[in-house]
Design goal:
N-terminal domain of MutM-like DNA repair proteins; about 20% strand; DNA-binding; 5-stranded mixed β-sheet; Helicase, Ruva Protein, domain 3; 7 helices
Length: about 270
DNA sequence: AGCAGGACCTGATGGC
DNA sequence: TGCCATCAGGTCCTGC
């Protein structure tokens, strides 16, 4: 599942190859992901436009174009963006192929067809409810301890549900929420408001540490995620709890459990996560 | 308002 | 072997 570290990895890869690229043609195999225009209009509008910079907000990947418009991608669970210098590999799940003037191309594929692509006019981020409502970037200065401290206050939801709420902090998904809570020694089902001050501080630090480490490992590949050149990430080797039911906790040796919190499969250590 | 749960989608997996 | 049910999860939507 592409979460913040995976999207950031793709963004960095694409930044190295897409700047100054000019769209020559957009090939539409399946128009479902395109919003708000029809896929045909989307393709027409892009022709001749140049990519001037890349960006990311939470799990949204952004390509900024020379006329001020922006292409926003959300890969959801199984979306992929893969760049190729010449002929792009494609399969039955390839929905769009962006062709550039120099002969290179970018394919968008998505097994589950949940991924979405928007073309936004200048200042059009508010056309996407989820994007305009995003909370602070966890690795930016906007995300600081007093902010998280306030966000946890009075909230009756589980701390895991709070971490998954993109309005609170942008970019955490199921895998990193579990990893953050393990690092912070906090049970996922604990109510957010029940955390003591020390726990809140540790949680704040854990969010940044886990995300930074995962970015440095180029993300986590559990099954579907690939970077912009089609390669797997490496952070799956460093996961402490996610997907490790029945294995032993690396910190205390207890058997890792799986339960359901916030409607999601949730992995935790029943001994050292309090 | 805040919160919980279902819908969306398809491939992998497991039971019989 | 084949068929069917279940599960995976990010976001949006509905309803309590």
């Amino acid at each position: 599942m592409p979460e913040l570290p995976e999207v950031e990895t793709i963004r960095r890869d694409l930044d190295a190859v897409l700047l100054e690229q000019i769209f020559s043609r957009v090939e539409i195999i399946y128009p479902g992901p395109v919003r708000p225009l029809s896929a045909e209009q989307f393709a027409e509008k892009l022709a001749g436009k140049k990519i001037i910079s890349t960006g990311r907000r939470g799990k949204y990947l952004l390509l900024n174009l020379d006329d001020g418009s922006v292409i926003a991608f959300h890969l959801r669970m199984t979306g992929r963006l893969v760049f190729a210098r010449q002929e792009c590999a494609r399969d039955k799940h390839t929905h769009l192929v962006f062709h550039f003037a120099d002969g290179s191309c970018l394919t968008f594929s998505d097994v589950r067809k949940f991924g979405t692509i928007w073309l936004l006019s200048t200042g059009g981020a508010d056309q996407i409810p989820g994007l305009s409502a995003l909370g602070p970037e966890p690795l930016s200065g906007d995300f600081h301890f007093p902010y998280l401290d306030r966000a946890l206050e009075k909230r009756a939801v589980s701390v895991k549900a709070l971490l998954l709420d993109q309005r609170v902090v942008a970019g955490l998904g199921n895998i990193y929420a579990d990893e953050v809570l393990h690092r912070a020694c906090i049970r996922p089902e604990r109510k957010a408001r029940s955390l003591g001050r020390e726990e809140r501080i540790v949680l704040f630090l854990a969010i940044r540490e886990v995300l930074e480490e995962a970015i440095s490992c180029r993300g986590t590949t559990v099954s579907d995620y690939r970077d912009a050149s089609g390669s797997s990430g490496m952070f799956q080797e460093r996961l402490r709890v996610y997907g490790r039911r029945g294995e032993l906790c690396s910190r205390c040796g207890e058997v890792i459990c799986r339960s359901c919190v916030a409607g999601r499969g949730t992995y935790y250590c029943p001994r050292c996560q309090k």
